[in-house]
Amino acid sequence: MNHVELTACIAEASPLRYTPAGIPATNFVLDHESEITEAGSARQVKVTMKAVAFGTLAEQTSRLTLSKPFRFTGFLVNARGSKSVVFHIQAFQPVSDQVLNPL
What we know:
Layout: E1 4-13, E2 17-18, E3 24-38, E4 41-54, H1 56-61, E5 69-78, E6 85-94, H2 97-100
Parallel strand pairs: 4-6
Antiparallel strand pairs: 1-3, 1-5, 2-3, 3-4, 5-6
């Protein structure tokens, strides 16, 4: 199964565009930073990832605030004609500071 959930901030967002079929689309660069335990040791994780949203989701995400954390859900595909990966966003929700920094 190809299902991804990622809490990240939008580092860059392109203006809303339309595909040749007339579907709204927005391209993003997402930044993620966290600490994960791997093999019993804490590891700092940093990821920068290309992402895209289509349809009404593209219209909604094109208005999101840069550098604010969101939980994105979707799937991964190879970029057209490339071996790089693009995260196709299917849903998102804001993340509260309480979730990011539990007491």
